[in-house]
Structures are given as C-alpha cells and as structure tokens.
Specification:
The protein is an alpha/beta fold. The protein is 60% helix and 8% strand. Among the domains are: 77 residues; 58 residues; 139 residues; 225 residues, Rossmann fold (3-Layer(aba) Sandwich), CATH 3.40.50; 32 residues. It is built from 38 helices and 16 strands. The protein has a 6-stranded mixed β-sheet, sandwiched between helices. Strands 3-2-1-4-5 form a 5-stranded mixed β-sheet. Helix 4 runs parallel beside helix 6 and helix 22 packs antiparallel against helix 25. The radius of gyration is 33 Å and the shape is globular. This is CHAT domain-containing protein.
C-alpha cells in the first residue's frame, strides 16, 4: 500500500516549479524532502512534523497541490502509526478543502488513504467503496497499466480476501502481479507481498498446490533481495508452513517452518507488536492441528489479549482467534465451549452488538453492520454445528424455540449475503450453506412432537430445499427476466448480453491456454478478462443506480410455496419427489396433490458403492455380452435396491406421473430403469423385467420453482408453430485436420433419423454438409417449436462449459465459425423454442457442482431459456436412437405430453424386439434418454398429403435416374 512514488513524482514537479517562481518555498522543499526520508525509514512522527512545516509554507504561497500532497502524506503516516482516527479526520478535512480538485490524482491519493483506514478498521465494504473511487481516477489519469493503479488493485484484492470473496480476490491479485511485473520486473519486493496475499484465497478454495506455488515464488524473490534471517523471508516461510500444515504428509514440514519463522518474527517485532496477533494465531492453528491443545490455547490467548488491547474487540483478528479456539474445544469434545467461542467469533464481526450478549440472544441480520459477511456465515455455521453435536450428546439440552430461532436467523443472514455477493463462485458457496441449513432443519423437525404443527413445518422444509436447488440457474434466468421487466433500455440489455458473451469466450480461451501451458497467451487473456470484468462491474453499478427496479427483481428470492407446487404442477395422479443426500443420510421431500411428507433415511457406504455399480451396469454393454449372468444380476439387484430406497414407500397407488428432482450423482441415473419387483421373482430376459417405465410417466426437473417459472413463461409467450428444425451432422475422420474431429465416426443413423423427420413433419432440415454452425446460429428459433440435434457431443468433465456439440465441418472455406458450439456459447444465446432434443452422446451427463447439480450441455440450453429438453445420460446407440426418436415424434404428433410420448417410444422399442434379440432391450439402449422440464404437449405438424406425394415423386425420379444411368453404364461396358 506504499504510495510514495506517486507522491514523489507530484511533489517533485511542483517543487521544481514553485522554487523557481517563489524563493520562499525553498525551505518548504527541504522540509518535504526530509519528511520523505523519515517516512521511508519508519520515523512517522518526525516525518509528520516536517510535512506540516512544509504544508504551512505551501499554504501561504497558495501552492495548493503541494499543500494537499503534504496533508495526504501526513494522513498516511497516521495510519502507519495505527492512529486511524487522526488519519481519517485529516483526510476528511482535506476532502472538504475548497482547493482540492475533484477527480485529480491528489483526490485519488486521499481516497486511497481513507480506504486504508476503513480496511484497518475491518469495515471492508466502505474501504472498497473508496478504493474503487480511487481506481476509477487513476485509470483515467494514469491508465490501467500504471504502477499506482496496480497498487489499488492490490488493496481491493486484500479487502475481498478478508471478506472471504476469494474468487474475486484472486482476480485482483493476479492483475496486480501482471502490473507489478510490467512496471518493476519479476524480482521486486512488492511482488512478495502480493504472492503472500494470494495464499489465503487459494488455500480457502482448496487449491493448495497454487497456494504453495505462489508462496515459493515469494520465497525466491525474498532470498534474492534480503539477507538470511530477514523478516520478509520469515513471513514467506510462515506462509508456506501454514499451507503444508493442512496437506497430507507435509504436516511436520509445515510445523517446522512455522516455528522457525515465529522465532525470527518475535525477535524482530517484540511480543507486543500488533503484527504478532496473526503470528500467535498461526501458532495456535499449528498446535491445534497437532492436537497439542494446551499449547494452542496459550498462544491463542496471547493473541486475543494483544488484539483487544491494540485493534479492539470488534476486529477480524478476534474472529480468527475465536474460530481456532472453537477448533480446540471441538477437539477436546467441549461442546458448550465450542458454542461459546463460535458465538464470540460471530460477535467480533458485529460492531453494533455488545460482547456480553448471552448465547441464546440471536442478532438481527437484516440491516445491522457486518465486518465480513462471509466470515460471519462461517462463524454461524461453527456455532450451529456445535449446538447440533451438543444436542446429539445430550438430548435434554435441546431448546426447541431457541434452535428454531437460530435457524431462522441463519436464513436471514444467507438471504442478505445473496443480495450483497455477485461473484458466481462465492454465491454458489452461499447457496451451499443454505442447502446444509435445510438438512439441519430436517433433523430439527425429527426432534419435534410430530402431532404439533407438522404440516406447516413440513411445507417450510420442502420450500427451503427447493430454494437452494439449482440456485445459480434460477438467478441467471431471473436476471434475464429482470432485464426485460426492470425498465432497462434495449441498448443496455444488448450491451450487457454482448459483454457476458465476450467474458464467457475469453474465460474458455484462457482455460485452453492454461491447459497447453502457453504463458504468453495466458497472461494476455488474463489481462483482457480482468478488464472485461471491471467493465462488467461498472456496468452493474450503473444499472443498480439508474434502474433500481432491475436489481430488486433480480435479487428477489422468495421460495416457491408448496401450495403453488400443488396447484400448478400436480393433479391427483401426479407426485413430485425431491432428494438431497450426504455421506450418512438421504433426505426425501414428497409433495402430492393433497399431502406432503419429509423423510430421512440413514445410508451407509453401500449406497455410494451401489451408485457406481448401477451406473456401470447401465452403461457397459460389453460386460453384458461377455458375462451375461453376472451383468444381469448386477443390473437387476441394483435397479431394485434403488427403487426400494428412493421410491417404493413414497408413491401412492393412484399415482401415474412422477416429477423427480434428484441430487448430486442421482442425476446420472434413469429412474425409469428401476425395477419394482426383486430379481428373485423376475424373468432373466431384459425384455420382460418389471421396469418402472411400465407403470409411470417420468420426467425430471432441476427444481420445482424453475418448473413453475418455466410454465408461466410458456403461458406468457407461447410458441405454437409446431414445426421442427433438425440438424444431422456428418463426419469424415479421414479428411479431418482437427485431431478431435479425426476421432469422430460418422453417424449414418443420425442422417436416417432426420430424413425420417423430413419425410413426415413440417419444418427446416439440415443434413450432412448443411448441418453447420453457420446455419444453426442465425435461426429464428421462434419459428420452430422443436429443435432436434442429431450429432456427436464432446464432454469436458474438467471444464463443463468447454463441452460442445460437433456440427458438420464447413467444407467451403467461407465460414467464420469453427463448427463446435460450446456450452458457454449456448449459455449466452436466446433460444425461444419449446423443446430441444439432443440426440447426441452424454448431453445430460457432466460434472457435479455443489447445489447446482450436473453441469452439462443440456443445462446450458436451460440457461438459454429453453423450457424443455430431451437429453442423454450416456453414449447412445445409433440404431436404438433412430427407432426411439422416430416413435417419439409420432406420439408427440398425436398430442401426447413429452413424457408420455417418450415413454411410449421406449416401450414400443422394447416390445417390438424379438426375444432372440433380448440384449438389444437392455436399458443401455433405451434408458439414456430423459425428459427434463416443462411437459406440455407439442402436436408437431405432419406433412400434408401433397408434400408427401412431392417427396415420393422426388424419390421416384432419383430412383429412375439411378436405374437409367446404371443401364447405360452396363451397356457401354458390354460394347467395349
């Protein structure tokens, strides 16, 4: 946070000019130069005395820029001495000075000083406000690449890190590194500070290797610049040690580094220097991790005493100490003390509350000031976890009213965080905490008297569970709706959409550059991405200020009521079942037309093993061929096992339709392939097994709330064209230049599939060389009720947004497209059709991301506004796909709902195969296709009789042409 170089530049300029214009300022120049030297050597009080003397002379000479620069440096010295009130008072006085030029570099310096004071007071939101104002001025006056601009990037990164907005913090730190390297070279001491700042965010996000890497880069520089035993080297050793401390197999190495660094730092700083607070805390962490709890407490209490004497009780340092003390008491099984320290950690972040408020007092989180909201959520989680454990060990300690009050307060805190946090990764963490809170509420319900207020509480649990499912997808769709109805002009809507598209594209380019270790490209793209996100941040600020209704609509987060689910999604024959599960428990939320229920099932490691075994049995057709008896048993045993656990006791006899909302790896299972009779009473023929599809129409959803929103959107802007736009891509691996395309085999079944649609239904059909991205992108999707894509898809499970659909490679050389349509591109499109059919491989499979579920290509279409999808859970067979899809559209044309049409198509496929071809009725061939989302019917339009005759005539002409040509060729050969 050193701003001396800018000050020297400005002051030198003014001193040079003023000394020539007015000889009386020579003395002022001398005072200012002496003050600079004293500032650099840490003599801050003496430095201030000389800056003040210089300022008096500059004021008399009306040299206001020089005067204000001296005042700014005095304010800086004050915060360096931890005299924060004096620094803030002086900066506030300068800000009101009539000769301060608004938006000048002097003004930027002043804003930076105020930001630092609020940072040191742990008021990070206010600090960020001033730092961002300073950043705006410096970017305009000095440019984005100027060194002084880079230092403000660092300050902002520190604030975000301390607030636990870690992904945002990393973005600012990475940009600071690029800036400093450009301006100072790769071995400047300033880089040490930045690299050390990056350790916490990387560690917090579980990216331990990157934390070690940045710490080691700091160590390399420190050893080049400083002598052995220097404080900076000790600081870096401490950073590396802390990371090793929590890496398996490196704990002892970490402990040794921390202890060695601590002795150097204690000797240099002295026991009562405020900088020792963090070091005492680190020693406490180290001894807690190695279970030396008495030593841990000794260091932690030293740190706590020093913190409360120097920085006060309401400071982030107290929070960290209390959290480690909670870990100590947790290790000692002192549950009541863990609750106490969790409570104290929470109060350290709430300036408006006394430290003496009792444990059973619940703070009000709606408007009260919070030092670091993300940390407060962690403190609350610590306290809640300890209360849970205490109740488990001593049920008589359970206070129903207090616990319920506590959970509601936690909900209020998370609701506030959802309003304040905008980074998607950090938001996902918040929603995940909400997910865990729901599970706590379920356990709380189980402790209540079931005869009292049962229905109301059950409904609340179901509403809570649904609110935290697929939260980011809901937020994205809500943002699109808010833009539409929030009074935002079209030009701003288009600009926001284009900016989002560009950011997504650059993110994927950066990911690929990192994969191939192209450091030059990586640096270039990282800089570009940071600048784009800065632009997006500014854009959002403008929207919030000028269009408040947009932000109110976007962040309105009311849960979907059970009554809404019952009225809008269910009838007497339809039931909705939603799941959540952890390592030890399965949570089942059931909603019928006239009843609700919540159940908790204890599960053991067998459940997780069976998930993998069942998925293998479904997808590995080779095992079914090589070891048929074993494979049959593996499939049927698991298919019945999951029916018993997930469905059997929840489905009423009158139910014919199921809406299922799975969780985590359950998203990868087709429930229609479950068996409702055990293996012992079933046929060994796959064809005759008692599949769930025989009894129920089944469809899936990401959440009930999303499903209702989708239906409402459909009602507001229906697409009644009932026409199909279909693409059947072709591939020629022999001529492919792209190594990835060279692996794609042609899909003759895809061509037959789309040809069959062309011969039967109205629409636009693109086959072979016409099935290119250049023909897909410009389609007016409003003109088609169904978009059918028969082609390969490529799954990137490491980076799901880099997954793609493989269109035909353009052969003309005129197209600007690469004919890969990526998930991130789909996410930013507007696809106003009723149904997308992804007749491709693994379009519904992908990587699981906390509360968001399976991140797949199919999900990207949902982001694009598609209300309903038919997609696949594994690589599908060409033959069975063509059969199932052909029947599906015929059933759709009859007016059946999507789930009913898909069910009929699958059953028709199974029934029509002869018993000697029983293996082809294995679920591998038919169960991969699932229906997700809205279930309304789309009576696709059959071709008119005239059109059919026309296509028949064309076919006849081609046949005659072929036969005549063949006849003449044969005759010619005979004559030869």
């Amino acid at each position: 946070m050193n701003i001396l170089p800018l000050f020297c530049f400005l002051l030198g300029f003014f001193l040079q000019n003023t000394s020539q214009a007015n000889p009386d300022t020579t003395t002022a120049n001398q005072f200012a130069q002496l003050a600079q030297q004293q500032q650099q050597s840490g003599q801050f009080m003496m430095s201030n005395q000389n800056f003040e003397k210089a300022a008096v002379i500059f004021e008399q000479a009306a040299l206001w820029n020089s005067y204000i620069n001296c005042q700014n440096q005095m304010a800086r010295n004050y915060w360096k001495m931890h005299k924060l009130d004096s620094s803030l008072a002086l900066s506030t006085a300068i800000e009101k000075h009539s000769n301060l030029v608004p938006q000048s570099l002097e003004h930027a310096e002043l804003l930076s000083n105020i930001g630092v004071v609020y940072d040191m007071q742990s008021d990070y939101n206010t600090a960020l406000k001033y730092f961002h104002q300073c950043l705006d001025i410096r970017k305009k006056k000095l440019g984005e690449d100027h060194f002084e601009t880079g230092k403000i990037y660092y300050n902002i990164g520190v604030c975000y890190s301390l607030q636990r907005n870690m992904n945002t913090a990393i973005e600012y730190f990475e940009n600071t590194v690029r800036n400093f390297k450009k301006n100072l070279g790769s071995n400047h001491p300033y880089l040490i500070t930045v690299y050390l700042g990056m350790r916490d965010p990387y560690s917090d996000l579980g990216r331990k290797e990157e934390a070690i890497k940045t710490s080691k880069e700091a160590l390399v520089i420190a050893k080049k610049v400083y002598p052995s035993g220097h404080l900076k080297i000790a600081t870096v050793m401490n950073s590396i040690g802390l990371t090793y401390l929590f890496m398996k197999g490196k704990e002892e190495k970490g402990k040794k580094l921390i202890e060695e660094a601590f002795q150097i730092q204690l000797k240099k700083y002295g026991a009562n220097n405020p900088k020792m607070i963090r070091l005492y805390t680190n020693m406490g962490k180290m001894y807690t991790q190695s279970k030396h709890y008495s030593l841990a407490k000794e260091y932690l209490f030293k740190g706590l005493d020093l913190a409360q004497k120097t920085v006060g009780k309401k400071h982030i340092r107290n929070y960290y100490i209390y959290q480690v003390l909670a870990d100590v008491t947790k290790g000692l099984n002192q549950d009541s003390m863990t609750v106490f320290y969790g409570h104290r950690a929470m109060l350290a972040l709430l300036p408006a509350y006394s430290d003496n408020i009792p444990l059973d007092s619940i703070p009000e989180f709606t408007t009260t000031p919070i030092i670091a909201p993300m940390l407060l959520a962690s403190a609350y989680a610590t306290k809640t976890f300890s209360i849970d454990k205490m109740i488990a060990n001593n049920p008589s300690a359970f206070n129903k009213q207090l616990y319920q009050k506590h959970l509601r307060a936690s909900d209020l805190l998370l609701a506030r965080l959802r309003q304040d946090i905008h980074n998607l990764d950090d938001l996902n963490d918040i929603f995940y905490q909400g997910y865990k809170n729901t599970l706590r509420k379920v356990m709380f319900y189980r402790k209540l008297d079931p005869e009292k207020e049962q229905t109301n509480l059950l409904e609340e649990l179901i509403e809570d569970a649904d609110q935290n499912k697929s939260a980011l997808l809901k937020l994205a769709l809500k943002s699109n709706n808010a833009l539409k109805f929030g009074g935002v002009p079209d030009r701003l809507i288009n600009a926001k959409i284009e900016l989002k598209k560009t950011i997504s594209k650059v993110e994927q380019q950066l990911f690929r550059a990192k994969e191939i270790a192209d450091s030059t490209k990586e640096q270039e793209l990282s800089t570009k991405l940071f600048q784009l996100k800065q632009k997006q941040e500014g854009f959002n600020t403008v929207l919030k200020k000028e269009h408040p209704q947009y932000f109110q609509l976007q962040h309105k987060n009311t849960p979907t009521k059970v009554q809404e689910i019952q009225e809008q999604l269910l009838d007497d024959s339809t039931m909705l079942i939603e799941y959540m599960y952890t390592k030890g428990f399965l949570y089942v939320f059931c909603v019928g037309k006239h009843k609700v229920d919540v159940d908790v099932v204890k599960i053991d490691p067998t459940f997780h093993k069976n998930l993998d075994d069942f998925r293998f049995a479904l997808t590995n057709i080779q095992a079914a061929k090589k070891t048929p008896t074993k494979a049959h048993a593996a499939f049927s045993d698991n298919a019945y096992y999951f029916y018993e656990i997930l469905l059997k006791k929840y489905i009423d006899p009158t139910i014919k339709n199921l809406i299922l909302i799975p969780d985590k790896q359950l998203n990868r299972l087709p429930f229609e392939a479950f068996l409702y009779e055990s293996n012992s009473v079933q046929s060994k023929q796959y064809k005759d097994l008692k599949y769930l599809i025989n009894k129920y129409n089944i469809r899936y959803a990401y959440s009930a709330g999303l499903l209702i929103n989708t239906q409402q959107k459909q009602a507001q802007s229906p697409n009644h064209s009932n026409k199909i736009a279909a693409f059947a891509a072709s591939y020629n691996p022999a001529t492919a230049v792209d190594p990835l395309r060279a692996q794609l085999l042609d899909l003759p079944g895809a061509r037959k599939e789309v040809l069959a649609l062309q011969e039967q239904f109205e629409g636009a059909f693109f086959l072979g060389q016409e099935a290119t991205e250049a023909n897909f992108n410009p389609i007016d999707f409003k003109q088609f009720s169904v978009v059918h894509l028969a082609m390969h898809s490529i799954m990137d499970k490491k980076n799901p947004m880099n997954s793609c659909m493989a269109f035909t490679k353009d052969s003309t050389g005129k197209s600007k497209e690469d004919d890969w349509v990526y998930a991130y591109e789909l996410t930013n499109m507007k696809i106003a059709t009723n149904l997308v059919v992804l007749s491709a491989c693994e379009t519904g499979d992908g990587q699981h991301q906390k509360v968001e579920g399976i991140m797949s290509i199919g999900r990207s279409f949902m982001y694009a506004g598609v209300p309903s999808l038919i997609m696949t859970l594994w690589q599908v067979n060409d033959f069975s796909t063509a059969k199932i899809m052909g029947t599906f559209y015929k059933e759709l044309a009859k007016g059946k709902s999507k789930s009913a049409a898909l069910r009929s198509a699958k059953l028709d496929y199974i029934r029509k195969l002869k018993k000697e071809k029983d293996l082809l009725t294995h679920p591998y061939f038919w169960a991969a296709f699932i229906n997700l989302g809205d279930d309304s019917n789309i009576p696709v339009v059959p071709l008119s009789t005239f059109s059919k005759w026309w296509y028949g005539l064309i076919g006849l002409v081609f046949l005659v042409f072929f036969l005549v040509r063949r006849f003449f060729l044969t005759s010619t050969k005979k004559h030869e």
